[in-house]
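Input.
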Amino acid sequence: MKSSPSVAWLVGASSGIGQALAFQLAQAGWQVAISARRLGALQAMQAQHPALHPYTVDVTDVPSLHEAAAAITRELGEIELCVLNAGDYTPMPLADFNIELFRKLCDINYLGAVNGLDAIMPLMLARGRGQILLTASVAGYRGLPKSAPYSASKAAVISLAESLHLELKARGVLLRVVNPGFVRSPLTDKNAFKMPFLLEPDEAAQAIMRDLPRRNFEIAFPKRFVYLLKVLRLLPYWLYFKLTKGAL
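Output.
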């Protein structure tokens, strides 16, 4: 990837981490194509910074992503950085088991990332460079109580990134995964429990910006929370279930 800012495409830019990251990329000198379903929200962002350019997409609609990628390339230039950040979340205790919620979160969180890759990878592979970030979550490290649809979809994103990383790297494209902890947003506002190490969206975006020049596979934050969850990931099941039983 070029060392100097160029064109970035941020999918899932209308709120939370995506919105904060869009503004920070623009302030750093990038021309930022911002995408989401809601045009009004994107236009409100554009009014705040001239380097933000709205392109509406629906990550469950593959043609809309291909059309946006082509339009961005035509109007702004080659996309050097693509952040596939669209996501959704609803907690689900066992009493509310809902197969439609599994389908919805899989379609947006996992298959939405797959659809985005289908649009951006051919463009980057054709010229042998570029960087792609897939936003997953530390919730994808292990299955969490009352979060089966979300944890499963994010675990799938992590596995997807791991599976494609080396093949893409061999052809000049850097694929990385972003694993945030709790970040304040309309989605985390659904949680009724106290969220440890809760970050504001600007803090999360700053963590991503700090790691952008590097070539490490994973961008994960906040560090103390990440280290704690990575230790839990190493535990045998009997001990992991014993420790997480208190979340029921």
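The first strand starts at residue 7 and ends at 11.
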